[in-house]
Amino acid sequence: MMAESTDSLVPLRSWIKDEAKKLNNCQNDRRKKKEVIVRLTTVAYGIAEMLKLVNSRPNGKHSLEEEVQIDNFCVHVGREADSFQHPWDDINGIRMISTGSSLTMLEPSYLSCLLSEEEKDGQMGRYLEVELEPSIVEGSPSEGTVSTDGNDNRRCQLFARLLYELFSHQPFPDEDVCTRINGDNCPREPAHKKTKVDHLSSRKELMLSRARGDFDNKADSTQTDSTFQVFARKMQELGIPVSICLMTQNLLESGLNGDKSGDAYNSLRVLSEDLHLLLLDPERFLFDKEVGEHDNADLLYRKEKLYGRDREESLITDAFCRVSRGKSEAILIGGFSGSGKSKLVNSLRDRVDAVGGYVLTYKYDDISKEKPLFGVVSALNQLCAIIKERNTSKGLLAITNKLKNAFGDDYWLLASLLPNISLLSFDFIVNEKPASETINLRSLCFTLVRFVRVLSSPVHPIMLFLDDVQWADDTALDVIHSILSDTRGSCMFFVGTYRDNEVLSNHAIYNFVEKLEASNVPTKKFSLTGLNQEDLTTMISDALCLYPRICKPLSDIVFQKTKGNPFFVLEFMQSLCTRGLLWYNRQQKRWVWNESIIRSEEITDNVKYLLASKLNGLPGNLQGVLKVLACFGTSTSEQLIGYLSETIEYSAIRDRLDDAISGGFIEKDGKGGFKFVHDKIREAAYNLIPTSDKNQFHYDLGKLLHATCKGKEVGDVQFVIVSQINRGLQLIESHPSLRMEIAELNMKAGNVGLDRSDFVTANSYFSVSLSLLPEDHWNSMYTFCRSLYFSVAKAAYSSANLEKAQKALQKIIDESKCLNEKLDALHLLVTVLVERDAQEQAFTTSFEVLLQLGETIPDSFDKRDARAMVKKTSKILGDISEESMSKMKEVDKKTEYILMFYNHISGVAFFAKPAMVPYFSCRMMQLSMENGISKYSIGSFLNYAGMLCNNKVFRNIEGGCRLGRIVMKTVSSKRFGSCSDQKAKLCFQYYALIAYYSEPFQHCRDMLREGVEAGLGTGDVRYSFLNALNSIRLGLLSGKNLQDLLKETEYYLSMMGKQKDNQTKALMLMFHETISLLISNSEYTAPTIATGSIIPPLQHCFHKALQSFFKSRSERCNHFAEKIMQAAEGGRQHHIFITFYYALNSFKVAEIVHTKKINAVPDQALSAFRAAAEHSKDNFQNKVELLEAELYNRDGENDKAKASYAAAIASARLSKFIHEEGLACEKAALHHKKIGETSEALNYFTKAQECYKKWGSQVKADEIERQIELMQM
């Protein structure tokens, strides 16, 4: 609505006079002059909108001439000028006197929210919305339609007159022009259509004029200026902007009889759009460009604007918004090179930064594909620097504490992978990796997952952008998959771009997408094509600062040549300028071109050719520098530039770099180095080197750098040097000395890669080194070969290429001259064999090595032998204490090897030959007590402690637990360093097999979970997953919430699936089934267990017994529990836990089957648990009291039963065993029900139901509900 109370209505003619005075008073003030022009254009736009919306026809009262003229309009002007942000804010609308209609013009308030105060002060653009009162005349054509009766053309002609008077402040002058507007005897104006001309002579004339420097010469001399063109030029002489002069010309042309100019207006709608465009961006479209006489005009592309990508921009923005709510997602964007993939992704940067997110980027190329994993690690390494920059010292302290809590003693893993972690805290500085600690691809992957898990969150989501991932391989993509599929809190948005025309259907990208979808990671994939013709016209209109309708013919040609590829468009347009086919006419103050000549020119539709032509025209020294940079990939470090500048050949490289930047070929990368502006430019620069010369060029460049850097610490430049040399290996086929030198260089580079955990890169360099060795290398280069082959084996093992690792190790063993030179290889070989599940071979190899080291091992070992050896070991061990163990001497090297292989063989024997475990453990104990201790001894002490706790023959729980605690305290004292590579195994040995006898289940479970993380962090997957199984087991038996436990189980299952550990996964699926069945009565569909996976019978019985007990299937529970209780060997871990439920269940079974055996079960169990409670009341006292209560209940001792039930409930609550508290309440309720105390029974049933609900078992809660309902009937 028009606010009449605050506006004044000023006749347009009077308003124009006022504006003319303002203009006269500000001739020397360019900004104020521009402000007046914006005001005039605003009024012109309002009148055009008014005419478009009213769109009335002559009705006898007013002719078109009377309607479209100055005196028919008034301007609504605001009165409170002091409150206006800009000088044009007082123009609130237009009133049309003849119709009585008013048009309100408003600038939406939300736009001001999008601009900073500084932007508000500096910007002149206006986005206006209009509202007509009264609304559109009934029966008139609706908005956007084009009149077909000629009235629109007539209005356009008359609007030209109005526009002239508005901007010139003078009456419309020329009689001849007036006559033409009135249409009286108007001769036909020559048409501005495309005519057939002699293109060859026209092009020749054009080129000659360019050669003379006459860039204002007309493009086509066959045409003369029309009357209207002359008139427009006269307007220009009055100081009216060219944009308005051109608009006036085209408006006048709209009324010509016959053929019109292609630029003539055909409707008020188009006119209104052009006027609004002038207001939206006056600096670009409205005001004249100031180009000096000797200056070159530039094409003014909007570098920040994404043309034609609104849908795709919304897709990635919406995906990021979902990620910032706490869940990872991935987007893969395909498209040809130059289609704008990178620009699309980078458009999201500011939004990510604005919400506190972190943007990490890395760009692959055909050079860096040799280091695919480096890209991911490098990108995450950036994160440390970003966090350092953004946080206060307090914030950094909080972050480092989170990292310390997550990694503990394993912080060196982070430091070895991400050097920038030291920026966050001095605590993360590691001078060297702990001795014998090795991380492999699995541990690297898990370390990065943990790192992202700690640092990402909905408040600080991470956006990882990898550009050109067609050069990446499955190693890098597997790491990203692991991060994205992490269900424990990672919050990452991954965006990968790739050239879909350069990848085959079997490329790792497609497998990566399948894995993400299988892991339920939301994933989208789309491709960018060329811009459509409308978006391309907008892009060219912006570049030329001309109306889109005028640019469309040129745009159509460009589209035909480039298919809308944005980068190709830029290069094509630039080539037109270079060839003189598109130029800035200083006289007309606008860009001009000749369509017919451009259309007829045989201009290639291949962007590579355009760029090649462009680069070939550069000076030779600049070409040379671009060729060198292209050999290094898309970017080149400052360090590398520095070394090049030290050479004679490239001493002036820095000057040439400045030239390359000025020429638009390269730019600074923000890290001190340089990068190519676009991949296509790098490719074109690289193709300046003839194909036949490329290898030689790389080789010479590498040798030059090697000579310059010899003896220096060059860091990553070493990889560059070796990679360059390797491109020319065929050039040194007949030069043995050079081959050896380069083999050594590759080995050195490989070892650096291995040291940095870049196993893929290390493998590639080692492979080259091997290929350069002579046939007799083991004879002629024995020491070098031993070192090289061992490095090959380590890199292969760390990359999970176990077959290659085994072959390399076997070669060392076969070729080595003595046992001492084989031992390290044999040690790694046994590790590889265990990984390959070749248990027998691992056992045999360790056995044979121990024999060669002088050990005597019996072929068999029975219980009598075990008893005797344990007795002997016990005497040697004596009354060992923490202090005496800490004072034990360090073991000698030979004994350490013996202990190392005993450690191997005992680990294998635990699962393959359990009867031999006591011998191996005792022998290791004896060796340690006699010769000294090492980290490999620790396992033997724990094995021995485990035997004391679990073996019926020589059970001594108190002694076993005591020894176990002493050993773990020695480990925590870091006597042997962090023992990170042993931590997973030690956690399993102590907390899964010993500690639960004396320490709370919950603590044991927490430590087992740490063992899971430690094992995954060091690549010890075997013991990591054993810890996972036992942590779930203890979680189930200690009353952990079942829903949380199910999620944890599913997490471990996903990890086992990624590691393809089908056997352990099958065991974990049993827990998943049990937990699921305890939660709900709904039918459980068991996942398919992989072929070859074996479920041990006792494992099966344990789960079935537990499920049956809590589902009140007493006979079935008894059946499975008895199988465990009757097992002579194995199942010791299950025995103590199932005994409790077996005993409670026996009371029900005894009601059906009366046998001495069944009746004896509770008393036997009670005896066992009383003994166990002596070591840990936390774990076992509640069980003792509940069994006592049930026995009192059976024997009719009601008062004692009540007291024992109450004690059992209190003990379970104190131990935080919510499930067993519920069980005790349930049993108490049944007792009170039995003796007729209904109220007490209902009270206990209600408490039991509450406990079962907290536990998460709807099954038990529903069962109790049925009991309550029966009692209330």
UniProtKB/TrEMBL annotation:
PANTHER family: HYBRID SIGNAL TRANSDUCTION HISTIDINE KINASE G
Source species, domain of life: Eukaryota
Protein name as catalogued: AAA ATPase
InterPro entries per record: AAA_16, Hybrid_Histidine_Kinase, P-loop_NTPase, TPR-like_helical_dom_sf
A Pfam family that the UniProt record links to this protein: AAA_16
Coiled-coil annotated residue ranges, if any: none
Residues of the Orc1-like AAA ATPase domain: 305-487
Upper classification of the organism: Eukaryota, Sar, Stramenopiles, Ochrophyta, Bacillariophyta
Species of provenance: Skeletonema marinoi
